[in-house]
Amino acid sequence: MFPNASALATVSTPGDLIANSRPGDSWAQLNYAAMNGRDESYILKPFIGNDGRNYVSKPTLNQRGEVEYKAFVTNAPALLPLYAWQAFDDVVVRALRFRLRAMAAVRAAGLEKTVPNAMGKTVLVAQNSTDVSAATISMDPSRRSETDRQQLDTTLFPLAIVHKDLDFNQREIMASQNAGVNGVNFPIDTEGAESAAYAVAQAIDQLLLGTTGTFSYGGGTIYGFLNFPQRVQKINMTTPDGTNGVSVLNDILSMRQSLINTKHYGPYAWFACTDWTQFLDQDFKTYADQTLRQRILATGAQDGISQIVTCDQMTTGKFQCALVEMLPRTVRAVVGFEAQTVQWVIGSASIRGPSRSATRCIRGPPQR
Question: Which residues contact residue 260 at a Cβ distance below 8 angstroms, ignoring those fewer than 6 apart?
Fold first, then answer.
């Protein structure tokens, strides 16, 4: 992609520098849009060109509206060649794709809010409001209906950053820069970056599920499914044993009815800890032709449970679960930028997931 990297060059394919984070969307396109055209994270990814000079790869928009990377000489001290950055980003994106369960389900449902230039903001200002009264039915559209004055209350949502640092020594860096047999570079170990990405994914899901406590900053607090103050709770769930599928289903339907009674009409997703796994795929009842999983998913399309998400970041031993209405008024992921690996200071790296000064970081977006 940069055969010589000794002059201005263009990456052949948009987003080649970073592996695709979601099917159909390149990391470049997502991050460029999220940063509102001011994505300066490329400054934190200087690489060593084949000529020994240091470069950064700046994202720009071409005439087709696609993001392309152009290489520019920089004074920033670079630690790694371009291929090493690509290797890190490949494993980071892959790890997040497989490890994010709860957050991936929310984003896959289109329930997300992108915050432009999130690195330049610390909180998201939102409003809570009362509902409006009923609409008017008449034969005259010019007739005045009842006018509402909603009660509004401003709230703050912290734009937190999920990050994990990793380091490698000078010898590993020098080995990655040397040509080996047949001109093949010695690879730098990417296991540390992959493990750091796992840690970031776990923390994001724990925050969303509410199993790791809350996070507060600037007068606002991030809550999860299991610690949101206004959640509806059911504390007498039937413990599945492989023979009581009818009772288990009735309890889940009771959970749904509790949400309907509070004007949350679905569709729903059911998030369950791993304790449920062995029972979900057993027969719903003796000699049944459906498993418990199939029977739960057969509750309906519009007001039924359309998805079961098994989450290993939920507490085990108590058959924890959460039924969530999958609508923007109930849950959304707040996304400042996609996860990436950056070089904070010489000799170290961090996985930031948006801010802190540290070493190489895989970063993930702020989440609600």
Answer: 266, 303
Taking the C-alpha atoms of residue 260 and residue 232, their distance in angstroms, rounded to an integer, is 11
Res 203: pLDDT: 93
Q: What region does 196 belong to: left with phi over 0, alpha with psi -120 to 50, or beta?
A: alpha
In whole angstroms, give the CA distance from residue 171 to residue 21.
31
Of the listed ranges 38-52, 209-223, 313-327, the least confidently predicted one is: 38-52
Give me the amino acid identity at 339.
A
In this structure, the answer to whether residues 109 and 254 fall within a common structural domain is: no
> Which domain, by its residues, includes 187?
9-114+159-218+333-364
Distance CA 348, CA 339 (A): 18
Beta bridge partners, 272, equal 310, 321
Question: Do 187 and 252 fall into the same domain?
Answer: no
Q: How far is CA 53 from CA 71, 79, 101, 129, 348, in A?
A: 11, 11, 41, 56, 20
Predicted pLDDT of residue 31: 45
Rounded Cα distance between 221 and 350, Å, is: 25
pTM of the model: 0.77
User: Domains in the chain: how many in total?
Assistant: 2
Of 19-33, 136-150, 234-248, 308-322, minimum mean pLDDT range: 19-33
Residue in this structure with the two tokens 């389900």, named with its chain if needed = 105
Distance CA 150, CA 26 (A): 41
The residue with tokens 């040397």 is 178
Cβ atoms within 10 Å of 208's Cβ, excluding its own: 28
Same domain as 27, residue 110 = yes
pLDDT of residue 36: 44
pLDDT higher for 45 or 274? Answer: 274
